[in-house]
Amino acid sequence: MYYTRLVEKEIELKLRTSGAVAVAGPKFCGKTTTCMLYQKSFVKLNTKQSITMAHMNPRGVLNGEKPRLIDEWQKAPDIWNQVKDDLDFDYQFGKYILTGSSTPADKTEVHHSGAGRIAPVKMRPMSLWESKESKGTISLMDLFDKKGDYPWDMNTEMTLDDIAFLMCRGGWPISVQAPKDIAVEITKNYYNGLFVFEDCENERFRNKRPDVLRMILRSYARHISTEAALSTIIADVRQSNERTMDPKTFDDYMEALKDLYVLEDLPAWNPNIRSKTSIRSTPTRHFIDTSIACRSLGVSSKDLMRDLESFGLFFEDFAVRDLSIYANSIGGTVSHYRDNAGLECDAVLHLEDGRWGAVEIKLGGDDLIEYGANSLKTLQNKIIKKSEEQAPSFLMVLTAVGGAYQREDGVYVAPINLLRP
Questions:
Q1: Cα distance between residue 2 and residue 36, in whole Å
Q2: pLDDT at 59 over 80
């Protein structure tokens, strides 16, 4: 069974407006399955023979009815150059679709950025709306457009146990479609597969020790949803594993993890506030999918239920995943805000036309919602008084469980399982 993906609209638009589309994202997030919807011929570089042939004759890989899907193109990086050269010679919209689960082994083999020819698309695992686990009664775009009445919904169907399970399972299509009793086990298999490099044609990954990659992911997960400096994470790796690690080695391994699209830090927002307050530029540490963080620490849904403080940090990561997917589908981006006065905002959604909305992410409960709402109102007042930014389109406390309603002060309370773009 195929689940419709929000990224489809972006792929369709870029096929109509660019010569080629390059869809990048982690393994098993559904890139190939989705892109197969748009191809009229395809080649998959998933065997030694096909990869060898592509290296020997990268131009030949382009032969076939268009749009031509080339799956895992990065295994023969010169394909990128050949696509760009072909488009320089005979430019037509929607000729090629390239998919990749990592960056090329040798980035110097890619001689052109592809700008103006090859349009990039980022694909993530599935959001709750895509996996049909959100009712979608609250639309982010409607909030930006101030359209319709905000729903009032007791939302008693979703429990914290349910959210904990969804976080551990992740948004991997094969896990989403599996029976609940084996879904997390399938995600475990995916996680373990991240570190199988023996037969990898990419020398950069073959030279990496899986145990060291796991160490770094564990330390990253221990600092999930924080603005921990990389030096702090290096120190954690050293202390937790009683081993030395120099910054150069750490950077090399971090680059590999980013090239596999498993980490996705949230950048800081700088609204140019006119005050002595300095805005911190450190990104918030996040994963492309919270299940990777759970697996790296061996955390189960029951473990999360026993430690609500950690649950809150993991849930923030989970919420940022969905917000990033939703924002991207409406042409927006997500960042975070924190200044040296202690004021922070977990997620700030921006649209291209300058509109923005602020979101605080909480597990739920009256006290946490009140705290989040007050923080949002303080941020709103600061931005309006001391920057040139327009007032926010909305303020929202995004919760794991509980009801949906608008508070008397105008702040929206939205459970994650009611949200959609």
A1: 12
A2: yes
